[in-house]
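Hi there,

I know you've been waiting on this one. I reran it after we fixed the sequence typo, so this is the corrected version. Both the input and the resulting structure follow.
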Amino acid sequence: MSKFGDLVDANIPVLLDFFTEWNEQSTAMHPVLRDVAAALGDKAKVIKIDVDKNKELSEALRVKGLPTLMIYKDGEMKWRQSGEQDANTLISLVQQYV
């Protein structure tokens, strides 16, 4: 869990995508997140977290629906939503915290 703290305690926004490979909506988000990462460059981080490999973290953050997206900045959750989002929506959300 301390690694997670280090991950989200950045002074730039961190967009987290909680997913599984067997969930269709989760895998549909992969190309969208690539576009978001490319558009934001080094102004933000985009990190995918497989809930099957990170059960403890997923339970601690009460991740139920997939995909679940979160934005952290300076160690604090700023935004969270479950379900698919389009790239433009995510880019504008993250840019609020740049």
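Quick highlight: The chain has a mean pLDDT of 95.

Best,
R. S.
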